[in-house]
Amino acid sequence: MAVIASVSGLNVAQPDLAVEFGASQSAILWMINLYTLTLAALLLPLGALGDRLGRKRMLIAGLVLFGLASVAGGLAPSTEVMLGARLVSGIGAAMIMPITLAVITSTFPEEERGRAIGIWTGVAGGGGILGMFLSAALVDVANWRLLFVLPVVLVAVALAMTLRSVPDSREHSRHAYDTTGALASVAAVVGLIYFLQEGAERGWSEPLTLVSLAVGALAAVFFVLWELRRREGALLDVRLFRARGLAGGSLTLLAVFGVQAGIFVVLFPFLQVVLGWSGLLSTAALMPMAVLMMMTSGLAPKLAERVGPKATMATGIALSGAGLGLMAALVSVDGGYPSLLPGMLAMGLGMGLSMTPSTEAITSSLPQERQGVASALNDVTREFGTALGIALLGALLSAGYRDAIGERLDGFPPEAAGPAREGVANALDAAHTAGPQAQQLVRMARESFVDGWQQAMWAGVFVMAALFVYVALRGPERKARGTEGAEAAQALTV
């Protein structure tokens, strides 16, 4: 919860950060996304290093680093310090995350593992929203800087529980640590996410955008070829993706968590700036979606046992796509919260149904002795998806807003038009310099935000439609009890 709440908690303070630091929408997006980018890039390398150095030792070090970085973020005097704090927080989170699911999957017996993973998924999916709720309460009651208090408290509790309850274990591998693979994976993640985020901001044909795409793509190809060569000594044995459960579960988590993270980036400015709600009320507005997500995460294992994981995942994906479509079609400035609610409810149901069977498909595809790999892979897909979703949907929102507002600013004074192009929160803050045109500027900024919103939502619908087709054709099949890991074992012998 500490790690996930830090992904989503800063969304509550977007307008405050824009005004406090004089930051553009793009800079705010980097404050949010730098954490998830760092987390996604370092999960595999630091997870594998923790296996060798000792999982408990790595977890304790990660919690301490994460806590100190959260304190630095709360005291940050500038955009640069905030970005540095978010970078270090991401490093600490990457030291923490790979251990969590591995502890569950290696501890619970087969007949109880599905329920345990369901609880873990519910905390990861809905716990982030509950974390935002507490953060919003702190922001509204006092100051946005206090939202960093929650991760510090959670880390302190987690550290005490780790010292008492988590056993110390490590893997003794006959292979050297895959340093080359680790560096290639970091380059691939950073290059591809930077391309997605900055492409919409700078332009898809700009030299820096194209260079980041080339670096990310070449690093990804090199990583796959290198890992195939390393085989058993690989950081991530890519042959495992021949297993349908592993591939289908990973793609589903990648897309679902990407869409969920992108939705939060879009929802909070709409509720706070377009509708004028407080951070606490905006977070409370997400509770129906969070409750449905957590409830269906717990029910999904039973449904998967009755109708199969493929049907359960496909149903969840279809509901999520329908929810995005409803939000894109119905949202408007005048429609307010009721124009969001049907889509949010469908999204909550869909994400809860798809996440738990996807996670179990990954962990059950690997044998017991490889659950550390399963946990790291599960975490990488979730966090990489989160970073991709924030980068892509957030960039589409920013680009759509900028295109829409640019056509409407003719005749406005430069001191109002300049900030208005940076983001909707900046536009509302600059409205007092627009004189008699102030109300017109506010209205145009809100309508332009909705235009960008719709562009981002339709992109999410397209992603979910493509995922639905894949899962329907190649999703994980129902396995007989006791056959977990057989498919992956077969893949490794090819």
TrEMBL record:
It comes from the Bacteria. It is a multi-pass membrane protein. It is found in: Cell membrane. Pfam families: MFS_1. GO terms for molecular function: transmembrane transporter activity. The keyword Membrane applies. Gene3D superfamilies: MFS general substrate transporter like domains (1.20.1250.20), Multidrug resistance protein D (1.20.1720.10). One of its GO terms (biological process) is response to antibiotic. GO terms for cellular component: plasma membrane. The chain crosses the membrane at residues 28-46, 58-77, 83-104, 116-138, 144-163, 175-196, 208-226, 246-271, 277-299, 311-331, 456-473. Keywords: Antibiotic resistance, Membrane, Transmembrane, Transmembrane helix. The keyword Membrane applies. PROSITE patterns: MFS. Its main location: membrane. Residues 1-477 form the Major facilitator superfamily (MFS) profile domain. This is MFS transporter.
